[in-house]
Automatic annotation (TrEMBL):
PANTHER family: CHEMOTAXIS PROTEIN, CHEMOTAXIS PROTEIN METHYLTRANSFERASE. InterPro entries: Bact_Chemotaxis_MeTrfase, CheR_C, CheR_MeTrfase, CheR_N, SAM-dependent_MTases_sf. PROSITE patterns: CHER. Gene3D superfamilies: Vaccinia Virus protein VP39. Residues 9-253 form the CheR-type methyltransferase domain. This is Chemotaxis protein.
Amino acid sequence: MAALSGYPSGETGLATEELEIELLLEALFQRYGFDYRDYDRQAIRRRLYALMRARGLATVSRLQDRVLHEPGASDALLRALAVPPATLFDDPEQARQLRIVLASCLRASAVPKIWLAECGGAEEAWSLAIMLAEEQLHTRTDIYATAANEQMLDEARNARISLERMEQCKENYRASGGTGNLDDYFEIEDGHAVLASSLRNRINWAQYNLVTDASFNEFQLIVCRRALPDFGPVLRRRVLRLFHESLARFGVLGIDREFDEGDAFGENYQAVFSHQGWYKRVA
């Protein structure tokens, strides 16, 4: 990816840019406690470029100056680096697979727990809650939806969907295998749709940092499909170890892609679907 116009051309410019990215990520960690230093550098660069273009900044150093000195700039950076928000049933194929997983892996548990690690916002959790209701599992299943960014958690707790957008959500819902009436799972508040309180109450929102925090519970299902693609190799191994420590035996792990040969604990899992990144822990 070519450097922005504020850098000299060639290897010197790329080296300068890489150094500035390192310094920005270190500053973000030291000043605000958010650690993106082991994220995939290309993913970081793409998101920094988008933010810099939006703010008319030619170099990463200028962005760092804003982040350290300008009110609100750090929030904008953290939002740019965070997992992109999901929309209701926005990946129908993955939702169909998740329906099968829910039916097969949770029924044997008296009080199953699901962890949406680095959740993509309210609508990802709402989609799961609706699928649990359709499998008659919602009254005894707890969803733990976590994210590192407290601001995004606040938005998730207070999320709403416009009635106009609900029409597209209904199409995605039907494509995902939904056979009911999507409206039945929602309440109308001030002209917007909000997930019914009986389902919202099963979702536990909490701040949690996959980079630094330890295992906090045992789960029958862990899903982390949106954040893992952004992790560098060292961080990916660390997070897969964390998931292994947090997943009950015969629980299911949903990740972004198939295990690589070098992935931590990969030999302890059995594929649920071919080439899809869903695995049952067997050891």
